[in-house]
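re: the backbone from monday

yeah here it is again, tokenized this time
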């Protein structure tokens, strides 16, 4: 039975690559080629010395590529380190270095969109520079150049602080089909809102800005709570309050009636959407503060608080998304909005957005944002503004039940109702909707109630109050508690820290982290870390801080700290040591520690400490400056060639009968994508970048498969129908230009395995293969070719083996009849197999099995390979190495010298999710290709790349510090030493010392040629590498 494309999703379950569909459907069966995509947008902020050798931490932020529909195609933000004037025609900037970089773009306009806000905010922010938002330039241009490429080039300009694409944001809702009294607003009782209203029904002086697609402010259940600008005379055509917006009596429309994407905005003073389908903003406004106790419609949590409608989307629903959300945030802050509700977001970090968020927060506005509807961990995904600091991030749950669509994680501050939520929609109507879009304004209304009784509280205090008074009922166990903190309780949010002196809670947050003698962890030695805790709420007493490392390779000698008392708005430090073990997988990355904070009145809260890692290594990780282009496909197969070029196949299912197949061609100049409306591309063998052969598959009842051959890079094809042999090609392998083999699924109860002797022009099925079981298939990715030997796994827990290029076969049972998704053999006897629980599983669960007798018996490895950290997507054993290697979904690389029973790390760079892998041997080094959002590779010694301190090995390095010579003494009967060298702080080899032995176990090294500084002595053996800082 055909298993469809789920066969590949077994291994690739969480990688989504994106492909634009425009102009594809218009030309079925025609091949097209896209442009290159750049992926080099990385902002590095190095830590700096504070005082007494304590340093702030290094920060690395990556601006990830997002689908094309989520960013503007001909516009960017550029922030300069020093402000420069714009010419009067708005076509150039008076900075020669920057101007030379953008001169070829055919500039349309250069403006300073946030300069006016910075000037107005200066007084309120004590003349601070409003995070430099007055130095953010918006540049629009006509040339057909990808904004990511423009930004990547500008990031090399020394006058540029950052350059970023301008993102469009999407709404966070999932549509579905007198309401408070009849129970339709069921969730109100869960939040104890009626008891909260007994304390405060909110104040009309408190303003909630709704940044959205527009709000029908004339709605019967909204109009009484719509804010009116007291400094503006309606309809006189004059900007009476001199804020730059004429007649903004009830808010503002920043986009207006544009008719096509990219059109010049036509702002106006009516934030009411003219298109009835643009109901989202009216819906969220009602949840925040619909007129309540008016015998109409619904009740809004804000009750009497006022709504400022701010429209940041086009009038027509044909042009979707939030286009000017951040300008809307600054406008709301300028108007004095106490709460700003943003029920939208999307992928793609933007430092410009972050600057705006920080500025609005400093102005006194609490920004309440949706966590997003991907059902994913916000800690490990790219979702903004939810991922920025200085926001209150809201997830969706109904009491203790998390909504299936809601994002979660320690970055989610609180959860609120988000399923079947009734609210206002245009035309005096009402409708139920679902999503974190709905949960967000509900919390915004509660925040407005808190502000009503605490008008002097800062945004940080309001946010903490809502979080620490939440009901901690969502997490099902203590381990999950930091990531599913609590369900909003409006009554407790108003009752605690109010008039009853027995109901006082602190609100403690880690406000700063520093390290002693450096901004990152650079060795396996203990490292001193200082965390500064700030209490935003009532005095905290008997405070206990427990540190919980998320990674098993981190040692914290002391994990518990106590603070007898911490007053309101005061700060106290805790200092602890952290030490990395030899199980650390990253030479460049980070580790996170959860801080559990407990105190009086059953106070419990959680925060995170993220510490950067930069360990010495001779390994190198090379990131491609290019990334795959734009909307949801799976990555299926790859062939990388010795010259660094290669072919990568991906597919996207468009309908039940049509498939978009993509050829991603990797060259030194980038990645180009070619695509065909054809059956899915599942297997590839490339002879060179222009000569390659592809195997296809179908998952329909017809069952067909072809071999597609090109010798000119895909400009033309020879297509061979092999449906009588197989309807699903899992592997293609060639031994030379003429002789090759395909591994395919069975047809008519005969395995679809065939050979060619003429370069793939004709194929002949191989007979005599053991019969398949009922419904048994092969699996893409579950195979190994080693010389004449072949292994492949099946959906039914079996592994087939041939030792003569596929002419004869035997079969072995791994056990449990589970799908064997990966196999790797060191030789005919020693091998490993990874199986999953089922073809349909969506969680990273896997079992690793080992054989040492050619598959006659299999035992389970003591290494657990389930979970995102270790979950393997590729395994291999280079000939002659006697090692097994794993590439995990997390990007972690591991090596085993006992055939998979235990593993140790191969130091690599932490760089996101990986879907495919392939290794090559280059000059006795392993070059491990990794396919994720781009194509990267790790280069490391075949023997070992694990670095341990010499103290673990009885190696003696002296004297230290060294002056003229270093003596290295190794123990008798020590592991074979392959090399000894000295490396600088950047990991560069500066002195080779291998041939400087003076006796059987002593090396004397002359270091006079080295300048003063910090170096590492590296002793490389067959088993591992040892180092000592000198």
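seq for it, each position gets an aa:
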């Amino acid at each position: 039975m055909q298993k469809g494309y789920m066969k590949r999703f077994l291994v690739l379950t969480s990688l989504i690559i994106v492909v634009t569909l425009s102009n594809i459907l218009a030309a079925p069966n025609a091949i097209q080629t896209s442009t290159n995509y750049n992926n080099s947008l990385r902002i590095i902020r190095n830590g700096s010395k504070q005082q007494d050798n304590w340093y702030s931490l290094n920060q690395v932020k990556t601006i990830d590529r997002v689908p094309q529909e989520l960013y503007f195609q001909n516009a960017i933000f550029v922030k300069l380190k020093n402000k420069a004037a714009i010419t009067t025609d708005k076509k150039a900037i008076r900075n020669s270095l920057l101007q030379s970089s953008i001169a070829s773009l055919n500039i349309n306009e250069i403006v300073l969109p946030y300069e006016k806000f910075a000037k107005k905010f200066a007084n309120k922010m004590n003349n601070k520079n409003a995070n430099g938002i007055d130095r953010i330039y918006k540049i629009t241009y006509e040339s057909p150049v990808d904004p990511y490429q423009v930004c990547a080039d500008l990031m090399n300009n020394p006058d540029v602080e950052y350059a970023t694409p301008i993102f469009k944001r999407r709404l966070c809702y999932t549509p579905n089909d007198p309401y408070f009294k009849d129970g339709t607003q069921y969730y109100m009782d869960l939040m104890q809102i009626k008891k909260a209203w007994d304390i405060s029904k909110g104040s009309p002086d408190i303003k909630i800005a709704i940044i959205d697609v527009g709000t029908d402010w004339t709605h019967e259940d909204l109009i009484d709570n719509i804010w009116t600008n007291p400094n503006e005379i309606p309809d006189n055509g004059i900007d009476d309050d001199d804020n730059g917006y004429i007649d903004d009596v009830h808010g503002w429309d920043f986009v207006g009636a544009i008719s096509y994407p990219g059109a010049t905005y036509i702002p106006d003073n009516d934030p009411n959407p003219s298109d009835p389908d643009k109901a989202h903003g009216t819906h969220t406004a009602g949840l925040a503060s619909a007129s309540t106790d008016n015998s109409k419609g619904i009740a809004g949590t804000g009750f009497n608080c006022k709504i400022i409608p701010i429209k940041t989307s086009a009038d027509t629903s044909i042009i979707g998304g939030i286009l000017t959300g951040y300008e809307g945030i600054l406008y709301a802050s300028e108007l004095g909005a106490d709460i700003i509700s943003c029920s939208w977001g999307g992928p793609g970090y933007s430092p410009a957005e972050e600057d705006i968020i920080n500025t609005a927060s400093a102005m006194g506005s609490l920004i309440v944002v949706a966590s997003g509807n991907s059902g994913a961990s916000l800690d490990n995904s790219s979702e903004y503004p939810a991922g920025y600091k200085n926001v209150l991030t809201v997830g969706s749950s109904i009491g203790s039940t998390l909504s299936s669509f809601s994002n979660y994680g320690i970055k989610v501050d609180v959860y609120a109702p988000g399923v079947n939520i009734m609210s206002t929609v245009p035309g005096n109507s009402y409708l139920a909707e679902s999503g974190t879009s709905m949960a967000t304004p509900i919390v915004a209304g509660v925040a407005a109630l808190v502000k009503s009784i605490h008008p002097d509280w800062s945004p940080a205090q309001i946010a903490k109050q809502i979080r620490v008074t939440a009901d901690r009922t969502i997490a099902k166990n203590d381990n999950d508690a930091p990531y599913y903190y609590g369900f909003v309780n409006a009554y407790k949010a108003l009752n605690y820290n109010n008039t009853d002196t027995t109901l006082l809670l602190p609100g403690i947050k880690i406000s700063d982290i520093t390290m002693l003698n450096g901004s990152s962890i650079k060795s396996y030695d203990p490292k001193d870390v200082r965390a500064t805790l700030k209490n935003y709420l009532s005095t905290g007493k008997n405070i206990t801080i427990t540190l919980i490392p998320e990674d098993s390779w981190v040692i914290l000698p002391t994990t518990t700290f106590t603070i007898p008392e911490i007053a309101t708005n005061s700060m106290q430090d805790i200092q602890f040591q952290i030490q990395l073990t030899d199980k650390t997988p990253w030479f460049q990355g980070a580790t996170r520690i959860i801080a559990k904070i407990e105190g009086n009145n059953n106070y419990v809260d959680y925060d995170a400490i993220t510490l950067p890692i930069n360990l010495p290594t001779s390994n190198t990780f090379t990131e491609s400056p290019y990334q795959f282009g734009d909307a949801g496909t799976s990555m299926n197969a790859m062939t990388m060639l010795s010259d660094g070029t290669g072919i990568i196949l991906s597919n996207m299912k468009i309908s039940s009968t049509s498939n978009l197949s993509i050829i991603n061609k990797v060259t030194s100049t980038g990645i180009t994508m070619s695509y065909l409306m054809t059956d899915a591309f599942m297997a590839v063998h490339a002879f060179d970048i222009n000569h390659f052969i592809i195997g296809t598959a179908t998952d329909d009842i017809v069952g067909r498969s072809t071999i597609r051959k090109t010798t000119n890079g895909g400009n033309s094809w020879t297509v061979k129908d092999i449906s009588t042999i197989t309807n699903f090609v899992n592997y293609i392998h060639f031994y030379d230009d003429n002789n090759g083999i395909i591994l395919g699924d069975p047809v008519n109860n005969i395995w679809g395995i065939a050979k060619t002797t003429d370069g793939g022009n004709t194929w002949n099925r191989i007979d005599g293969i053991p019969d398949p079981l009922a419904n048994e298939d092969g699996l893409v990715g579950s195979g190994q070719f080693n010389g004449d030997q072949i292994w492949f796994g099946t959906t039914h827990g079996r592994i087939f083996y041939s030792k003569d290029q596929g002419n004869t076969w035997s079969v072995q049972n791994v056990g449990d009849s589970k799908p064997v998704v990966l196999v790797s053999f060191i030789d005919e006897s020693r091998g490993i197999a990874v199986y999953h629980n089922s073809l349909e599983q969506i969680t990273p669960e896997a079992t690793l099995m080992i054989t040492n007798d050619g598959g006659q018996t299999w035992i389970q490895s003591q290494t657990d390979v389930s979970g995102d950290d270790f979950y393997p997507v590729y395994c291999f054993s280079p000939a002659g190495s006697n090692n097994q290697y794993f590439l995990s979904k997390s990007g972690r690389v591991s090596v085993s010298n006992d055939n998979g029973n235990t593993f140790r790390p191969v130091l690599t760079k932490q760089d996101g999710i990986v879907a495919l892998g392939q290794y090559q041997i280059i000059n006795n080094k392993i070059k491990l290709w990794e396919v994720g959002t781009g194509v990267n590779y790790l280069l490391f010694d075949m023997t070992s790349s694990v670095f341990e301190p010499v103290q673990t090995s009885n190696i003696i390095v002296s004297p230290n510090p060294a002056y003229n010579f270093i003596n290295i003494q190794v123990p008798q009967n020590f592991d074979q030493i392959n090399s000894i060298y000295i490396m600088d702080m950047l990991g560069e080899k500066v002195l080779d010392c291998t041939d400087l032995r003076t006796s059987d176990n002593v090396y004397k090294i002359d270091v006079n040629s080295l300048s003063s500084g910090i170096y590492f002595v590296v002793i490389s053996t067959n088993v591992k590498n040892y180092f000592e800082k000198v």
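The chain has six domains: 42-167, 178-232+277-495, 508-612, 629-767, 777-914, 956-1021. Residues 10 and 874 are 12 Å apart (CA to CA).
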